[in-house]
Specification:
This protein is an alpha+beta fold. The protein has one domain. It has helices at 4-11, 13-44, 51-88; strands spanning 100-105, 115-121, 127-132. Strands 1-2-3 form a three-stranded antiparallel sheet, with helices on one face. The radius of gyration is 21 Å and the shape is elongated. The protein binds zinc ion. The site of zinc ion (ZN) has 8 residues, from loops.
């Protein structure tokens, strides 16, 4: 998985941001569909009924719960990170939005750690730091 700095350097901020929103919403839809599946199976679940069907329903409910939680957490994290970077990607000198060049990026050991980047404006070459959450 690429860090935000790698993604922004490769695609440019605006395309990276757009892709983060698209991917984040795919995770949201995944979480929503898992919730619908869980509700549908809960309606059919009868633990006193025939064994194999109830057991398979229970296994699917547990798996869908796990996937749904992972998906919604990813959705929240991706949108939070994208919005946080978007707020910082306004040039302090000329106020243009999203036209940045990544000059230097700190090492992010995992995707969980914040990554500090030194960026410059593509229009006026003003430099500043942004930090992804
Ligand atoms: Zn500028």
């Amino acid at each position: 998985m690429a860090t935000p700095a790698q993604g922004i350097a490769r695609l440019g901020f605006r395309i990276w941001y757009e892709r983060q929103l698209i991917e984040g919403h795919v995770w949201f839809v995944t979480g929503f569909l898992c919730a619908v599946l869980i509700m549908a199976l809960m309606e059919e679940l009868n633990l006193r009924g025939p064994g194999p069907l109830s057991l398979s329903s229970l296994v699917i409910i547990v798996a869908a719960s796990w996937l749904g939680i992972v998906a919604i957490r990813r959705y929240i994290r991706m949108l939070g990170r994208a919005e946080s970077l978007a707020e910082q990607c306004v040039c302090p000198a000329c106020a243009c939005y999203g036209l940045i060049r990544v000059l230097e990026a700190g090492v992010a050991e995992t995707d969980e750690h914040p990554q500090r980047m030194r960026v410059s404006c593509k229009r006026c070459d003003q430099q500043w730091h942004v930090e992804s959450i």
